[in-house]
Amino acid sequence: MPFKPRVFSGMQPTGNLHLGNYLGALQRWVEMQNTHECIYCIVDMHAITVWQNPAELRQAIRDVAAAYIAAGLDTKKSIIFNQSQVPVHAELGWIFSCVARLGWLDRMTQFKEKAGKDKERASVGLYAYPALMAADILAYQATHVPVGEDQKQHLELTRDIAQKFNNDYADGIRAAGIADGLFFPMPEPVIQGPATRVMSLRDGSKKMSKSDASDNSRINMIDDADTIGKKIQKAKTDPEPLPSEEAGLDPRPEADNLVGIYAAMADTTKADVLAQFGGGQFSTFKKALAELAVAKISPITSEMRRLTADPAEIDRILADGSRRAAAISQPIMDQVKDIVGFIRS
Ligand code: TRP
Questions:
Q1: pLDDT tens across 126-168, in order?
Q2: Considering the entire predicted model, what is its pTM?
């Protein structure tokens, strides 16, 4: 079966979204709408692999939906929905838990990081997380998955699951009339763009993260202009002026990060930014960066506020997206059930 290009990606509804989520993911998702059929999910089932307060979770799902739309995801072009509203994810996730091997999951570095020292107390769901992620993607036979570097290993596992399913059930797949035996595609990660990795403003070697104890380490999408300006002003730098060439950023993670953020927001390259600011002091550059950040983020923030003021409207959008998502994934799931040997009516 030749697979038509289809994009799937998702984000967890946990905590406030920050500039790293926007530049590393959302901005790219928005662009892909113009070239691809896109499906964007709020992965609430992944969120509960660690404890979530129910009221906060509900709020976070709506907040992320609002952020998606405020950032430019368009329900006329793309499907936007929350994972738990489409039962196929759970169903296919279970089947993939039976396809994936313990040895494969044992290698997942994200589990090791998230489970920490006491892995006996981590949830079974946290361990099985990548099988559910594979189900998210393959339930739509998606071919392209825009993600950060940290998700590359999960994408490899997704391909391993797709391949093992195609092999294990080869006879049933051919019996279903799929002559080339490829029921699931081998989805590729899409990792590109100048600010794929936005780092902490306090430490250029750490990713910008919602779980960092210091709020000054990140720019939240709900920060006001004043806060954004102050955080950029306080951002860690070094005593040297900015280099004129990109190579000069190499041993300077903080400078590299700020230049990368500027480039991503201005939709240009680091080389271009350095052509403009190279040789100058950080104070001048930071002023320009703060202005650009405010110009970019403020309209998104006010749109997010407008949307979250009407939760019923957000719920309606998610219900509609979920129906459209199910219209694609349910027929695929029906075929999976037949191939696996289940009975359905
Ligand atoms: N694991 C991803 C993350 O933490 C979120 C995710 C879940 C996802 N399912 C997905 C991303 C499917 C892309 C495709 O960022």
A1: 999 999 999 999 999 999 999 988 899 999 999 999 999 999 9
A2: 0.94
pLDDT tens figures, 244-270: 999 999 989 999 999 999 999 999 999
CA distance 163 to 68: 32
CA of 38 to the centre of ligand 1 (A): 14
Ligand 1 proximity of 8 Cβ (cutoff 6 Å): yes
Regarding the beta carbon of 137 and ligand 1, being less than 6 Å apart is answered yes
For residue 199, list its beta bridge partners: 207
Q: Pairing mode, if any, of strands 79-82 and 37-42?
A: parallel
The pLDDT tens digits for 102-114 are 999 999 999 999 9
Helices (H), the chain: 19-21, 27-32, 44-47, 54-71, 88-99, 102-106, 109-115, 124-138, 152-168, 170-175, 225-234, 253-266, 270-277, 282-308, 311-340
Tell me how many degrees the CA angle 75-79-83 measures, rounded to the nearest 5: 130
**Structure token digits, residue 116:** 């920490």
* Beta carbon of 12 within 6 Å of any ligand 1 atom: yes
Active site residues: 114, 207, 210
